[in-house]
Amino acid sequence: MKRIFGFLLGLTLALLLTLFAGENPWNVFTILVRSAFGSMYDLGLTLSYTTPLIFCGLSVAIGFHAGLFNIGAEGQMTMAVVTAAAVGVLLPDVPFPLAPVLAVLAALIAGGLWGWIAGWLRAVRGSHEVIITIMMNFIAAGLAGWFALKIIPNPDSQNPETALVSPNYMFKDYDLVARLFPDTPANASLVFAIVIAVLMWIFLWKTAWGFKLRAVGSNPEAAHRAGISEKKVQIAAMTLAGALAGFVALSEVVGSAGQYRIGFSPDYGFIGIAVALMASNNPLGIIVSAFLMGALHKGASDLDLETSTITRDFSRIIQALVILGVVAQGYWEWFKQKRRKG
Amino acid sequence: MTAAVQFKGISKYFGEVRANSDISFSVAKGSIHAIVGENGAGKSTAMKILFGMYRPNSGEILIHGQSVDFASPIDAMAAKVGMVHQHFMLAEPYTALDNILLQQKGSAFALLPRKEQAQRINDIATRYGFHVDLNAKVENLSVGEQQRIEILKILSQDSDILILDEPTAVLTPQEVQDLFSNLRKLKAEGKTILIITHKLKEVMALSDAVTVFRSGRMVESKKTTDTSVEDLAALMVGRGLQIPEERLSSIDISKTLLNIENLSADLGTHKLRNINLKIHAREVVGVAGVEGNGQDVLIRCLLDSKSLNKGSLSGSIQCHGSLQAFPEDRLRFGVLPSRPVYENFLLGQEHRFTKGLFLKTRELIARTQEIMKAYDIRPHNERMAFGKLSGGNQQKLVVARALTQKPDVILAAQPTRGVDIGAIEFIHNEIRKSRDDGAGVLLISSELDELMALSDRIVVLYKGQIVAEFTRSEFNETSLGKAMGGGH
To answer: What are phi and psi of B272, to 5 degrees?
Structure first.
């Protein structure tokens, strides 16, 4: 969490902005804190935002470690969630322990495939992964919408969402985390997210594959000379990134909603970029930065009710300023280093 | 008369490395002043300070008697100081004129008066003899022409003080003569020229005064007429020149380790034509040549032939045994500058430090520490970012990484580029040790001294062909130099 100063700077600036709306920044801050952590219910909601942010942050981070900018976590996640929902709706008779495993596996494959396409195009065709993943986000949104509205729509609702998966697919009664935070979408997938982050840390720093991936990200030409195939690494990294984003299906479909709802994500995939940056792409740091960003998101939701002039869209402003603050700190460190050199 | 440029006690550190310490000398207005010294002696650093690319840690620079403090090259250019870098700073897909205009002052939105400017630049070019087709794209021009564009860039801004960093390294002998006569014309017009070189004959032929650098210090500054090539050589090295070690013939002719037959390859700008080369056990074969005569193609063929266009490649390369290389440009091809030293030691030999899926980190770190001690790589800190090591220490690690894997064939490309003298000797001895242990070495270098010190045979590459071959008893600078310039 080296970038905590950038985070605080961005948050402070955002709070000062509320002066222009005639609010007391301290007052706004206390509302934010209370709304994010004030009760078990509030904390539960904050944690329910944290889980997908951890997965998306990890997805973006593994791309960065391989020298790739994955802006496609949103699309990879969307494909995964809709796939998990489709499996759960179309194969209702799979028994319990197997069902969620099957749904999540299908989700990982769908997300991984979405990442693989971008990685393959980058490695083999030389297309820039930023452009590709942005476009793949739109394709994913279109496909998912088509599924939710035309193929497996929810017959009992006017909302744009898929039908509910069969109950065999969900943790529900087995979920101790959910029992801790009743009436909130918080669920055991948070524990999974933390485990996955730790596994990714081990992968990156303790395995030869992780080293090769980081070597390509650090200097592709030297890695190439050392006999590491940068193409394979790029494809693998994007596939892993897609699969990591795909884990959101675990928290969304298996853990809480039991369906794919258009608009379920407040741009988790994009906030994931800020989460990864704030943690300098360190998987363990991502757990913390995802929690902070989750808290901000939840905190801002009560501003609507408790202040007269600020709406929940203010969370976007806070996020933007926090990202700017984090980037500014990164730039400042780079600048200091450069000045020291000459 | 006030000097055009005066260095007063300039010091510059890079981390723990002292690139310049307490440099003081002055350059007379309207003179050609040579800066000489071995690789890594601090010449380029001092000139980059003068051009505002680096800020000194202490000391000051006076220009025409005025103290200056350049924060960037923009300030230096405003003070009429211009620099031609060793590696040209040109936008290759654009025309010569575009490249020159790019440097002009003025509002970003002003229309470029291209015609008048072209006329003006043409006038300057004619006046000083730097002819170049202004409408030609830079990528289609020769190195000599590209250099003229760089010089025109400076002249078109009316600069008084020109810094040239190793301008002759890439030129043919004829181009060198042209450049020198043009530089004399510039001098006659009252321009002051600083020229970095390590070719002493050029110093004697061209300069009015000379300053010698050694290990970051200024060791001598005097009129060229008061010195001699031998004098300067001794000052540069700081000791008598080493007599090349006498080699008793221990080459194992019966054992060919690397066999290159009829190799031709085309890399666009650079080509190789019909190369035949055999390297035996316990043999060092040197490849001499001005850079850009096919060395890069040869390296690509040996290390990375898959990346070459199949159609352009013919002939065969047989390598009997394992091959390890010191890359010609270590920062680009050899290392991960932002990563710690031990990860750089790991690069390329992951299989040796893996158990199952996991890295044997403890063993890796222990081994790295051992190597850093044995090779005296300082500071002894295996967790330091590799890029923060000095050039010599960086190269020692690259050499150690390759040699500790006990390769049968060693490709040593520019093994001591940008490396301090102590490290040069060390690296040379390590190469000799590997050779004595039975390895065959292909040594590609632009340093004649290095080639003559290490090689059993030297072949000369010129325009992609081997134009001459010398055995150890035939080595001498004049005939090697001639062959490198294309003359036989």
So the answer is: -125, 140
